[in-house]
Amino acid sequence: MQTCENCNTPFSWGKIYGSFLWNYQPITCKECQTIHKITISSRFVFVSFTILPMLIFGHFLSPFHNILLTLGVAILICIVGSLLAPYFVTYKRK
Ligand SMILES: [Zn+2]
């Protein structure tokens, strides 16, 4: 998990997830108030954990002939991907 570049305090999963929800909002360290911004490559990481597997599943891999079922599983993949993404993204000190 990402830590503060200034004081090495780990950022919580919830804090990083919250940052995603607010359009990659910068994260402020709770110990030293240093502001961290998400790196460009991490935005790609997030997309490749969410949108990309969802599209690939929806277009190529779905075993279902039912559009609603396909859509449901695709959304599930997107949600699971977004839950994992905080472990793989990096933030840099501003
Ligand atoms: Zn800090």
Low-confidence stretches are none
Reading side by side through the largest sheet, how are the strands ordered? 1-2-3
Strand content: 5-15%
> Mind describing the biggest β-sheet?
3 strands, antiparallel
Question: What structural class results from the helix and strand content?
Answer: mainly alpha
Helical residues, percent: 40-55%
Please give a structural write-up.
- By secondary structure, the protein is mostly helical.
- The chain is 51% helix and 10% strand.
- The chain contains four helices and three strands; from the N terminus they run H-E-E-H-H-H-E.
- It has helices spanning 13-21, 40-49, 51-61, 67-84; strands spanning 27-28, 35-38, 91-93.
- Strands 1-2-3 form a three-stranded antiparallel beta sheet.
- Strand 1 and strand 2 form a beta hairpin.
- Helix 3 packs antiparallel against helix 4.
- The longest helix is centred in the C-terminal third of the chain and has 18 residues, at 67-84.
- The model has no long low-confidence stretch (mean pLDDT 95).
